[in-house]
Amino acid sequence: MKKFWTYLCWGIFGFLLPFSLEAQEEQPLEPEIKVVDSLYREDQFYFTFTYNTAGNLDGLSQKKFSPGIGIGFLRDMPINKARTYAVALGLGYSLAVYNHNLYQYPNPTPNGTAYTYELISGDTFFQRNRLTQHFIEVPLEFRWRASTLSSHKFWRIYTGFKVSYLLADTYRFQNDVQSVTFRNNPDLNKLLYGCYLTAGWNTWNLYLYYGLNALYKSAEVNGVPMNLRNLNIGLQFYIL
């Protein structure tokens, strides 16, 4: 009789064991503890939209809106423990459009092509007078931000230096009597560089860029050297 009860107890235990294990597996899990990344980086894609102007030439004026866009990526490298200071190096593409009253046309010569530049008077009608440029750009910036380990929304001030290499350019002029189009003007500087400042909150930031060298290398208007420096004002958006 003793053996009967022993076998019965073991049988009941064996029968209930799988249910016990299943019940343990179905118990609610402890809430996960979110681990904060103390070594975060603000690596960011950027998009820039600007209004472009070119100054330092008397009589030059903008006609219509002159837009500029830029896209690229910046690699963030923090330099303090709180990670509120950093340097960043990037690579991107930019498009610059200038709608102005600077007329340009090529003149064939025995030694190649020479380009002539004139300012269009205010009473002269034309439908289009546009210079379009495409660049590869390399920005290097110093960053300050009021970021924390748990939030990516913060105030920022980023200032930097940017080098831009001219990939291609196109000039177009059109009025009622003639149309002029040419590409890759050798008088344009292939390498442009300048300083910029970005400041704002979270995604929205004001953007200001000033060129430190001229758009044209040695071009003249009526014997006066053109020292056109580009000034771009607009917005820069950062996306993680």
Task: Give the % helix.
Answer: 10-25%
Output the structural class.
Answer: mainly beta
Count of extended strands? 13
Separation of the first and last Cα atoms: 75 Å
Number of domains: 1
Signal peptide: 1-23
Pfam families: OMP_b-brl_2
Protein name: Outer membrane protein beta-barrel domain-containing protein
InterPro entries: Beta-barrel_OMP_2 (IPR025665)
Brief sketch in words of this structure:
Keywords: Signal. The protein is built from one helix and 13 strands, in the order H-E-E-E-E-E-E-E-E-E-E-E-E-E.
Written description of the protein model:
With 240 residues, this protein is mainly beta. Helix content is 10%, strand content 55%. It holds the Pfam family OMP_b-brl_2. Residues 28-215 form the Outer membrane protein beta-barrel domain.
Key traits:
single chain; mainly beta; Porin
